[in-house]
Design a protein that fits this description.
The protein is of the alpha/beta class. It contains 25 helices and 22 strands. Bound molecules: adenosine-5'-diphosphate and magnesium ion.
Length: 683
């Protein structure tokens, strides 16, 4: 078979297997097992060794054993409660096979008198005689019984026997692929082939052998194929020829010089990388990654001005109205007067919206700010040159690709995220984009002091807050996340609000999931204008909003949050030049482990480092909800335990990109492992 037929075979329907009827196939489909390849990752959990056959005299009561016998006599009592019995024997003794609720016909069929039969099961003992009750492993063909039988976590309705049968079939007919990896890479896994690796993986004695060469090789295959697909998407998008933008450094510098702060080195570097992309004739598809408060907005606005000065329009999208308004106001403040800036808001009147749409179509608006509404069909740009998307770490690969298609050929794409992720995950999640990273925070930032407090010491917290309020400062009070239940979250926030109101009359407002959008905007605006002092909320306040006057955040029941999430919440304060404080409240004394976790937060404000630690504790899927973001669920690979393989794959990927190596030899690999929809697009 060649590689193509191999692929076809492995990706073929389950019904091509013997012993898999329509019913079994549909049961497996429910478990997302659709083809032969999917079954390869259904691994045995444990196994029972039935390979050794004993004589009756040597049987051990209470153990699962195999014995070859001849049925001698049926005893079918025809009284309901009494079981059917078959007396069997070998040269050394006697054993009864006992059947509850079995038809005589069935028993006669599997245990015909006078034939040599191999049976296996747990050996029991009754009235001084050995017996096996309801034996499941019975055959005239001893080789079918005398083997190691794998135990699988069962899909309802599919028995162990059926699994063993189909798995054996697949493993027996497993195709041999031509090696897709380079000699250098495959030598790191003792040159073990894919075929051999799968076979080893399924051997019962190899269960859980994570460090072995076959396991590592297969994990590497998975990682590498993900990277390769991402890289191909990136290359494909970048190959699109566009009209390049001109960078007017003089104008850019005059804007920078008018700011009331100095850009950090990382900001300058990121701006430079974006400028290079804008002025190139290849389409930009770039992610600007930087911790909360690292100053991404200003960089994106400077990129926008370069785009506008080159005669293009810019669409700037943020997830919420208040955030779009904040960016809009900043643009109005720093851009020259001749730039036409607009905000499209859900609240705008119909006639105003119509007017904006018309102006966009006639190129009378240079930059428009809005929520996802700016990507509706009826919004038509005359000459869109750049899309900026803020705080969209939950965009999956597919959505990002659609976005780049929508902007049209001349449109560059800049995504921004304040979600630092562990290095091993960067290529997995963002490998389809070029990345600029702002690691360094503005020098004026003071570290946020982080404390933990027992809930019963709430009076200390209130005292502290009173002092801060008297200094003119504002407070975020985040109510606990209560196990999965939004309803309870809500109740606890309301209760806390009522309580704090009695202590700080007229100074507290409440935001929760049920607050309607308009009211929410009013509350946030009032907070921004310092019209009240304490904002009580569930976790719904989004990242990104700049409240320079709020310098204290209280987080209740803090052990319900992951480290990254606490870090994000904490990032809502500490944006101004005041001293800021984060108070983590706990219901009971912390365990040593929890203390260790919290100490990481106290000691560092580096979101990247915190995300690494968070991943080690919670696993990669949970780090800030990446599970829903289209990040692939790996079958074997694990970013925590296989971080060396992720780095190896990254290095190899770069080597292949730099040397422009032909990737067609990897096609069988990516066809097996990856998302067919994307593959069709790039292959
Ligand atoms: P984020 O990266 O989280 O989106 P923002 O762009 O909202 O951060 O910036 C947070 C705050 O920091 C804003 O008030 C912004 O004006 C300010 N800022 C940005 N860059 C600098 C800098 N280099 N020095 C001081 N303050 C800065
Ligand atoms: Mg931001």
């Amino acid at each position: 078979m060649n590689n193509n037929t191999n692929n076809e075979y492995l990706l073929s329907d389950l019904s091509s297997l013997k012993g898999v009827g329509r019913k079994t196939a549909s049961l497996l489909k429910k478990k997302n097992i659709n083809n032969l390849f999917d079954l390869l990752w259904k691994l045995p959990k444990t196994y029972t060794d039935r390979s050794l056959s004993l004589m009756i005299k040597d049987l051990k009561i209470g153990e699962i054993q195999t014995v070859t016998i001849v049925p001698q006599k049926y005893n079918f009592p025809r009284i309901r409660k009494l079981p059917n019995r078959v007396s069997c024997a070998d040269e050394t003794g006697e054993i009864d096979c006992v059947f509850f609720n079995s038809y005589e016909g069935y028993i006669k069929k599997i245990l015909p008198l006078g034939e040599i039969i191999t049976i296996s099961g747990k050996i029991g003992h009754f009235k001084n005689k050995y017996q096996i009750t309801n034996p499941k492993y019975v055959s005239e063909n001893s080789s079918l019984i005398k083997q190691v039988h794998n135990k699988y976590s069962l899909t309802e309705g599919v028995t162990e026997k059926v699994y063993n049968k189909i798995m054996n079939q697949i493993i027996k007919n497993l195709p041999n692929f031509n090696e897709w990896h380079s000699k250098n890479i495959i030598s790191k896994f003792n040159n073990i082939s894919w075929n051999k690796s799968i076979k080893e993986l399924h051997k019962p004695e190899n269960i859980g052998n994570f460090k072995s060469n076959f396991y590592q090789r297969l994990a590497y295959d998975e990682i590498f194929s993900t990277f390769l697909v991402n890289s191909e998407i990136r290359k494909k998008i970048k190959k699109i020829k566009k009209k390049n933008k001109t960078i007017n450094i003089k104008e850019q510098n005059s804007l920078i010089n008018n700011l009331d702060f100095k850009l950090t080195n990382d900001q300058v570097k990121s701006l430079h990388e974006i400028n290079n992309d804008l002025s190139s004739s290849n389409k930009m598809f770039r992610l600007l990654q930087g911790d909360v408060g690292s100053g991404k907005t200003i960089i994106s606005l400077l990129s926008a001005i370069n785009t506008i000065n080159s005669g293009f329009q810019v669409a700037f999208m943020a997830p919420t109205e208040i955030l779009t308004r904040q960016h809009f106001n900043l643009a109005k403040k720093i851009f020259p007067k001749n730039i036409n800036i607009e905000l499209i808001s859900g609240k705008s009147e119909y006639s105003k919206k119509k007017d904006i749409l018309k102006k966009l179509e006639n190129n009378k608006i240079d930059i428009i700010f809005g929520t996802h509404a700016i990507f509706q069909k009826k919004v038509v740009f005359k000459k869109l040159g750049l899309i900026v998307i803020d705080e969209q770490h939950k965009f999956g690969v597919n959505q990002r690709k659609q976005l780049s298609d929508k902007g049209g050929i001349d449109c560059d794409i800049l995504l921004m995220t304040a979600t630092p992720i562990p290095r091993t995950l960067t290529m997995t999640i963002y490998g389809d984009m070029d990345i600029s990273i702002i690691r360094e925070k503005p020098k004026t930032r003071k570290p946020i002091k982080t404390y933990s407090k027992l809930e019963e010491k709430i009076d200390d917290v209130l005292k502290f807050i009173t002092k801060e309020i008297n200094l003119g400062n504002q407070i975020f009070w985040v109510c606990p996340l209560i196990e999965e239940s939004k309803k309870l979250d809500h109740t606890s926030a309301v209760k806390k609000f009522e309580y704090l109101k009695t202590r700080f009359p007229n100074q507290v407002s409440l935001l929760h999931g049920k607050t309607d959008l308009e009211e929410k905007n009013i509350i946030l605006n009032n907070f921004l204008k310092n019209k009240f002092k304490i904002l009580v909320s569930t976790t719904i306040i989004e990242v990104g909003i700049d409240f320079p006057n709020a310098n204290v955040i209280v987080i209740e029941n803090a052990n319900k949050f992951g480290l990254s999430q606490l870090h994000q919440l904490r990032g809502r304060v500490g944006r101004g030049d005041k001293d800021s404080t984060c108070i983590l409240m706990f219901k009971s004394n912390l365990s040593d482990n929890a203390k260790k976790r919290i100490n990481i937060l106290k000691e560092t404000n580096d979101g990247f480092l915190i995300s690494e630690e968070d991943m080690k504790i919670r696993g990669y899927g949970d780090v800030l909800g990446f599970k829903q973001s289209g990040i692939k669920n790996f079958k074997l690979a694990d970013p925590i335990h296989n971080s060396d393989l992720f780095l190896l794959a990254e290095k190899e990927m770069k080597r292949i990109e730099n040397s422009n190596e032909d990737i067609s030899k990897f096609k069988p690999l990516i066809k097996l492992y990856d998302r067919a929809d994307i593959i069709n697009d790039i292959a």
